[in-house]
Amino acid sequence: MSQFDQVIDRKKTQSVKWDTLEKNYHQKDLLPMWVADMDFKAPEAVRSAFNSYLEKGVFGYSIVPDSLYDAIISWQKTRHHFAIKKEEILFNSGVVPSLALSVQAYTDPGDAVLIHDPVYPPFAQVVEDNNRKLVRSNLFTDDKFMMDYDNMERLIQEEDVKLFILCNPHNPGGRVWSKKELQDVGNLCRKYHVTVVSDEIHQDIVYQPETFTTFQNADPSFKDFSIVLTAATKTFNLAGIKNSMVFIKDDKLRQAFEKIQKKNHQDDINTFGMIGTQAAYEGGKEWLEELLTYLKENVEITYQFFQSELPNVKVSKPEATYLMWLDFSFYQLTDKQLEKKIINEAKVVLNPGISYGEKGSQHMRINIACPRSTLKEGLQRIAAAFK
Ligand SMILES: Cc1ncc(COP(=O)(O)O)c(C=O)c1O
């Protein structure tokens, strides 16, 4: 039995995934397979680091220790062959807050910001909330999601795009963009002086034989016009500790980001965030290997289940992330009808595809990062509603 088979009751733990269902849907016994966190315990290394800090019992202001920088630098180097220096690393509470700060740092109100469609919903929200113009370029599906470079180039020119937010690997499509794809999109952005923000929070949840390339490793010149956002929180199931990193090699880009961060007084970070991130990077490697094996099997089970039990729902295996993109278009339901059916009849909560953009219409995103018994229960419920 794997440690990840253990079913943990997350109800009444202030969990967004589990504790908002009754309020939102006025129903009991819904099975949540939506928000992107995992129903697993964090690594022992992290829990014991928290315990030692708790035992001291003093929770005052803290500084960032060199040991945290070392842990991040070493993780990036050994895991992603990415060389980053201490002075190129900034911290922030979350990747989403850093997306918002990037929009403020690198564009002016009214400027156009490009994102893909579909993509993680806060990409659009940070653009619109900051009164910038949202420009979306559809990914196209050719077995898997692909970027439409011609369309991106047309939009960059027509809309005078200043910033492009890339999701690498891609949520919800599970694509690990290849080095060639990153080079193509990077060259395009360089040609038109478009700054790139590469959100790489899913960088560690990648299934062999795929290999992840950080945007700045795709070409040595890309560091001059891009920044990279990442965190240990997605990898090690620590979303609640609120800690993330911003890698900026270019001095001007880093100064601009720091300026906005200071202006908003957002340059202090949570002590638990620091402790969790360092402990995870230092001691979580084996846990992560076991997790990846477990998740890969969950992907396989989910894929096979739809093939055999519900073949009209099209699904492909993600190259990365514990999220799978389900195509329900066969049933010809509106997005509202589809969401209602999943909730009221399947009694499962998934993420409606339409929230990721127009391209997500008639799709749903399922989170398979749960014990196998929970996964099977959820899949059976979906099948029963659609059979
Ligand atoms: C692409 C992407 N970026 C950012 C986040 C969230 O980042 P944070 O919790 O650090 O704000 C998620 C969470 O699902 C995500 O999928």
TrEMBL record:
- Output the InterPro entries linked to this UniProt entry: Aminotransferase_I/II_large, C-S_lyase_PatB-like, Class-II_PLP-Dep_Aminotrans, PyrdxlP-dep_Trfase, PyrdxlP-dep_Trfase_major, PyrdxlP-dep_Trfase_small
Can the keyword Lyase be found in this entry's annotation? yes
Cofactor(s) it depends on: pyridoxal 5'-phosphate
Listed GO molecular functions? transaminase activity
List, alphabetically, the Gene3D superfamilies matched.
Aspartate Aminotransferase, domain 1, Type I PLP-dependent aspartate aminotransferase-like (Major domain)
Q: Which UniProt keywords apply?
A: Aminotransferase, Lyase, Pyridoxal phosphate, Transferase
Pfam families per record? Aminotran_1_2
> Which superkingdom does the taxonomy of this entry point to?
Bacteria
| Protein family membership | Belongs to the class-II pyridoxal-phosphate-dependent aminotransferase family. MalY/PatB cystathionine beta-lyase subfamily.
Question: Per its UniProt record, what NCBIfam families does this chain match?
Answer: C_S_lyase_PatB (TIGR04350)
Q: Which PANTHER family match?
A: PROTEIN MALY
Protein name listed in UniProt: cysteine-S-conjugate beta-lyase
Look up and give the organism this protein is from.
Tetragenococcus solitarius
